[in-house]
Amino acid sequence: MSVLVFAESAKGKVKKAGFEATYYGHLTAQSIGGDVVALVIGDAANAADLGKYGASKVIQVNHNGSFDSGVYASIIAQAAEQNGANTVIVNHSSSGKSLSGRLAVKMNAGLVSGVNSIPTADGGSFKVKKPVFSGKAIAECEINSANRVLTLMGNAYPPVEVSNEVNVENASIDGGASSYTVTDTKTADGIVPLPEAELVVSAGRGMKGPENWGIIEELADVIGATTACSRPVADTGWRPHHEHVGQTGVAVRPNLYIAIGISGAIQHLAGVNSSKTIVVINKDPEAPFFKAADYGVCADLFDVVPALTEAIKKHKSDS
Amino acid sequence: MNLLVCISKTPETTAKIAFKDENSSFDTDGVQFIMNPYDEWYALVRALELKEQHGGKVIAINVGDSSNDPVIRKALAIGADEAVRVDIEATSSFFVAKQVAEYAKSNDIDIVFTGKETIDYNGAEVGGMIAEMLEQPYFSFASHMDHDGSTATVTRDIEGGVEVAEINGKFVISAAKGLAEQRIPNMRGIMMAKRKPLNVIPAVEAEGNVKVLSYELPPVKGGITMVDADDMDKLVKLLHEEAKVL
After folding, report:
1. Of all helices (H) and strands (E), which one includes residue A140?
2. CA-CA to A31 of 20 to 30 Å: which in A64, A86, A185, A275?
3. What pLDDT, on the 0 to 100 scale, is given for residue A64?
């Protein structure tokens, strides 16, 4: 049986998340057997590149119109059937989470969402791990149905090239019509959304007021990071809600999370504890965040942050 | 309008997470349980607001045993008109979705609300499953929704932005931050909740196809390296050479 990967695309290109899912599909196929088939819905000029990350076949389905979880799930389920795939991988993204439940019901498949390990299928028992309790634990799950759907946690497997481009085959699959009308779409250009961000600069109440955010934005700008904030900061309207990171906000898992003037309440840590490296800047040596950090600076953030920005600028011009 | 709100019981956000029986089950000893915040703060409250605007009723539904009743009573205290508990252990998201979908089918529900995810399993699975079982549109991660009685306008979070859609007819919606403002139950609500119906119904048959075999705690961090505030060059060097993230 094959592994089918739904490779997400946007603005006419396969996204990084699509390559991640394909590379994870490759690792999965190595573990449980089978080939990797990548599916692209809509235009994607770089679809052939999916071959480099392990897809032995890439199929592209024309689709005009916006995302509808029902239509997409229908296309993916048909593609899985046509290609003899019983394991389907999608990203644990807004779209992936939106369609995965539908897809699992359509395929009569067991669904494990937010996986961050390679599945095993020793002795016919399909097992895979996922973080639970907002990252405070890891659960090993077993799927006992013939079909399986997995959603892959972002940034868990940075894509690695393992092969070459492949030809893209056009497939005609009809997912049906959407039962609602999309009237408007607003996306911020040039900003990496928080759940996908590899570098995050986040600040909290220690900033004293929204007028002081200039030093945060400058630091983020210098390293190309996305800005984030703690819950109290979003709740008081200093920063927009979509920047709120934590248990009831966005969960992030970047390579680098710099926490500035955030004490590190347990609910905040739940949203960031999957970050690879955490830097904490806080003048309170008792701040609980230091216990969860890899690097710490205990001093006034209004001195430290501009100094850090300067040091990074210097490092960049030297290298 | 008949509005059905899925209520889940989750450990309180500061609960210590531990396991028992050779790490095969969650140790609930000393753990306080609450209504899943997305269900309580956003899904339930927006359903109540729609009812206040257009009439109809708000039904809270939960799958689980009688230990869930305090959480269900809280939904009634906040303002739900009645509650239903499907009397069986919630073993998997598919199993729960099946129970809710069957209830919605036989009770002429116009809108099914869920929270965007539970804060324990973080799966965001049940809403989409219910929608598929009901063959209805699904609006995940909705941060805004207006309804004029026949047409709903829904704003939902997508990658890096939002999308606005218009829908006539029935649908399933998962509630994210912004959909409504949290309501605190008052004394009158708490007293009234005791007299509101909490119907316990049997489960419909459904197969669960996923189970948790065991739990483990994530690897412990290696400890912190403190850097002097006057030596940011050193921090940059560590991030570049040791952590390899810059």
Report:
1. strand A137-143
2. A275
3. 84
Q: Which residues of chain B have pLDDT under 50?
A: none
**Are B74 and B68 contacting, i.e. CB atoms less than 8 angstroms apart?**
no
- Closest chain A residue to B39 measured between Cα atoms? A248
Quick check: A66 and A127 in contact, CB under 8 A? no
Distance CA B53, CA A261 (A): 42
Distance (Å, rounded) from C-alpha B114 to C-alpha B5? Answer: 6
Cβ–Cβ < 8 Å for A36, A69: no
Distance (Å, whole) CA A212 – CA B108: 53
Residue A190: name the closest of A11, A28, A2 by CA.
A11
B148-165 tens-digit pLDDT: 999 999 999 988 789 999
Interface of B with A in 21-80 (CB under 8 A): 37-38
| Overall residue count recorded for chain A in this entry | 319
Q: In CATH, which of 3.40.50.620, 3.40.1190.10, 1.25.40.10, 3.30.70.1450 is domain A2-171?
A: 3.40.50.620
Read off the tokens for A133. 């309790």
DSSP 8-state class, residue A167: P
DSSP code, position A194:
G
Instruction: Check CB contact of B94 with chain A, cutoff 8 Å.
Output: yes
A277 vs B contacts (CB less than 8 Å): 239, 243, 245
Q: Which 3 state secondary structure label does DSSP give B89?
A: coil
Domain ranges of chain B: 2-218
Kindly state the tokens that stand for B133: 């079982």
Nearest Cβ partner of A133 from B17, B127, B243?
B17
Q: What pLDDT, on a 0 to 100 scale, did the predictor assign at position B219?
A: 83
Place of tokens 């909705």: B142
Domain locations along chain A: 2-171, 194-318
Give the span between the Cα atoms of A237 and A285, in whole angstroms. Answer: 27
Residue/partner pairs of B15-19 with CB below 8 Å, 24 or more apart: B17/A133, B17/A136, B17/A137, B17/B217, B19/A137, B19/B215
* Secondary structure letter of residue B139 according to DSSP: E
Return d(Cα A249, Cα A259) in angstroms, integer.
16
Topology (CATH) of B2-218? Rossmann fold (3.40.50)
Measured distance CA(A268)–CA(A251) in Å, rounded: 9
Residues of chain A with pLDDT below 70 are none
Does CATH place domain A194-318 in 3.30.1380.10? no
- Which amino acid is located at B57 in the chain? K
Amino acid symbol at B130: I
B209 with A291: Cβ contact below 8 A: no
Please, which residues have CB within 8 angstroms of residue A235's CB and are 6 or more apart in sequence? none
The whole-angstrom separation of Cα A205 and Cα A244 is 12
pLDDT tens-place string over residues A46-85: 999 999 999 999 999 999 888 999 999 999 999 999 999 9
Alpha helices for chain A (secondary structure H): 16-32, 69-82, 94-107, 214-223, 231-235, 266-272, 301-318
CB B92 within 8 Å of CB B209:
yes
Is there a contact between A133 and B238 if contact means CB atoms under 8 Å apart? no
